[in-house]
Write a structure and sequence with these properties.
By secondary structure, the chain is of the alpha/beta class. Strands 3-2-1-4-5 form a 5-stranded mixed sheet, with helices on both faces. The radius of gyration is 28 Å and the shape is elongated. It starts with a helix and ends with a helix.
Length: about 290
């Protein structure tokens, strides 16, 4: 390897390291913001869940369509929450692998699946797998406004309420800790399994009064609960994205440091060898004279 070629490689790796280091710092900053957003939304999600559980236990004179259980299950809706950008390690691959396994399992059972995708990175792999993608959301803003993906989630929710789908699932990445995440596939409709009080027997509370009738109150609150569950999943997935990108760019920066160290060593050895060869040529020329 020539000295000029080694210099060119050192320059190229140095420039790449600057990019990966900058992306690592940006992801670290965004990760803190996204984790804070996910934590700040949890009190609302927990409160709306508590109200939904209370309504479910109260058993008003109305059975909401969100609680309708249909057997046997013939059609399923799947909401997949992926990322908009790459360079985030195995985050999307692990989630899409879990989705592919679920799709294959449903296919073996003869269940038809309609897939709605939030984020652009999940559409291509799911299409190649043969999934029936009926709705998708493009680029999400940094603020994660609910209106940005409201149209996508409306498709499976409307399908369930109109009895066109028997169950609805959501697949997303859950932030287990500050620097770890795991893919999850959870059923969100019907709501009967989610509206189970796991905190023990609650204290007796006065009964709710539904005015003018229970139907609009129950349907609105249960819809808000489903929307909060989906938004929490999108917020968790966004926090996982920044975490995965930070770790991936940190690993890329470390690899660039090791490569630079090896290239500098090779450069010094090659340069010393070239100097030694020139000195030998000079000495041999002087001896010949």
């Amino acid at each position: 390897m020539q000295i000029r070629e080694i210099r060119s490689k050192i320059k190229s790796v140095t420039n790449t390291r600057k990019i990966t280091r900058a992306m690592e710092m940006m992801a670290r900053t965004k990760m803190a913001k996204s984790q804070r957003r996910a934590r700040e939304f949890r009190p609302y999600a927990e409160r709306i869940r508590a109200i939904a559980i209370r309504i479910h236990e109260d058993k008003p004179d109305y059975m909401s369509a969100f609680l309708a259980r249909r057997m046997p299950v013939a059609r399923v809706g799947l909401i997949v929450v992926s990322t908009d950008r790459g360079l985030c390690g195995p985050l999307n691959n692990r989630l899409l692998l879990k989705c592919s396994e679920a799709l294959d399992g449903w296919q073996k059972e003869g269940v038809k699946v309609e897939v709605s995708v939030i984020g652009s990175r999940g559409v291509g792999p799911l299409h190649r797998h043969g999934a029936n993608v009926v709705a998708r959301t493009g680029v999400l803003t940094a603020a994660l406004h609910f209106e940005a993906f409201f149209g996508t989630i409306t498709v499976p929710l409307s399908g369930f309420l109109n009895a066109q789908l028997d169950e609805v699932y959501i697949a997303y990445n859950h932030l287990s800790s500050a620097l770890s995440y795991e893919p999850r596939l959870e059923k969100i409709l019907p709501l009967d399994e989610l509206l189970v009080n796991r905190d023990g027997a609650p204290e007796p509370l006065p009964e709710y009064l539904y005015e003018p009738d229970p139907k609009p109150v129950v349907d609105t609150l249960l819809l808000r609960y489903v929307e909060s569950f989906i938004y929490q999943a999108v917020a968790e997935n966004n926090a996982c994205e920044q975490c995965a990108r930070m770790l991936a760019m940190q690993a890329a920066t470390d690899n660039a440091d090791r490569m630079l160290k090896n290239l500098v060593r090779v450069y010094n050895r090659t340069r010393q060898a070239a100097i030694t060869t020139e000195l030998c040529d000079i000495v041999n020329g002087a001896s010949a004279i």
